[in-house]
Amino acid sequence: MKNLYWCWVAIFNKFAMEEQECSKTRDRHSHDAFLRCAAVVLPYLNSDELASVASTCKALHLISKPITSRRTSDASRGLENLPIPFFNPIAGDSQPYPYFFYTPTQTLLVRPEFRQPWGSGDDARMCTEEGRPDPFLFRVESASGCECARCIGDCCPCLEAGDILLTRECGPSCKCDPACGNRVTQGGVRVRLKIVKDERKGWGLYAAEMIPSGQFVCEYAGELLSTKEARQRQQTYDKNASMGCLTPALLVVKEHLPSGNTCMRINIDGTRIGNIARFINHSCDGGNLDTVIVRSSGALLPRICFFTSRDVQENEELTFSYGDVRLKLDGQPCFCGSSSCAGILPSEHT
Ligand SMILES: C[S@@+](CC[C@H](N)C(=O)[O-])C[C@H]1O[C@@H](n2cnc3c(N)ncnc32)[C@H](O)[C@@H]1O
């Protein structure tokens, strides 16, 4: 795909020269065909590539403009129920949006050559329950589930009383359908959100409306990694972070036995492919989001979801605690602004 990109750049450049030199004599038919082709290819380019192609000539600049504005108006490319726009209020910073691939659910390792179109006007419209990708990557064959038709009240056996940070939902082995009331986290984002840039913390996720306490906000989606892969990636991110060139979004969640030993560990990397949860910043006071492990009947792996831990006001930033351990005393500075701020972001052995 990289070669294909360079091939396109060469064609764009040739087109731009022709556009300038022989605009009167050029064959109108092939000119229009080229522009139609460009409209198909440009949404596959990343933000830097798009900017460089747009600078080659007026025609390509005009095609790239609506692509940029569609990207800015919805981070989710139509893959969520509601659009989630970007806002960059920082004077002198012209970055309209950060570039990443979107997945609304957990996904397996994505090939480096993968490209996702974004901003074509045909971005996926997955607003219907049927259109959403399956939230469960792996199923447990022959697992039992509920027989309820609608899971009303508390008679559904899947509604086991968990503690606040563990929830049980109906899943692939249940008879009920996606509209069942015990599948709260499986239908995607249902609250209005936006992504806003801060001078010191970078992009962050904000409430675009008042969100009451206990409301599901979003899942933490991204590439599901083995622990070995997660450790290797963390090393790479640590190296790159010290050069200040990317914001890593690798989440490691561990469940512990009463003895303190880890009994379950899930590694989800939203750095390259993820959802809006990759923009949630850290707060030393725990923020306003609870990280909840959601298990579903018949699903092999739990999913990590965020619920509001208190009422959140419109325009308030959504945050959670990245952890309590700070192994690197010279780690990244924290700008959470809470009265309990430790001054540096949490860091621990992955
Ligand atoms: C998961 S990303 C969050 C989104 C990120 N701000 C961005 O622009 O993509 C984690 C990174 O955000 C930044 N960050 C998160 N919380 C922060 C805080 N309280 N203070 C300073 N930087 C923070 C750090 O660079 C961290 O490595």
Could you give me the name of the CATH homologous superfamily of the largest domain?
SET domain
CATH architecture descriptor text of the largest domain: Beta Complex
Largest sheet: 4 strands, mixed
Low-confidence stretches: none
Task: Kindly report how far apart the N and C termini lie.
Answer: 32 Å
From the alpha carbons, calculate the radius of gyration and give it in angstroms.
23 Å
Query: Which hetero compounds are present in the coordinates?
Result: S-adenosylmethionine
> What global shape is seen?
globular
Please identify the structural class as seen in this structure: alpha/beta
Helix-strand sequence: HHHHEEEEEEEHEEEEEE
The number of domains is 2
Number of helical regions:
5
Number of separate strands:
13
In the CATH hierarchy, the third-tier topology of the largest domain is known as Beta-clip-like
**Approximately how much beta-strand content do the residues carry?**
15-25%
Domain SET: 191-323
GO molecular function: metal ion binding; methyltransferase activity
Domain Post-SET: 330-346
GO cellular component, one term: chromosome
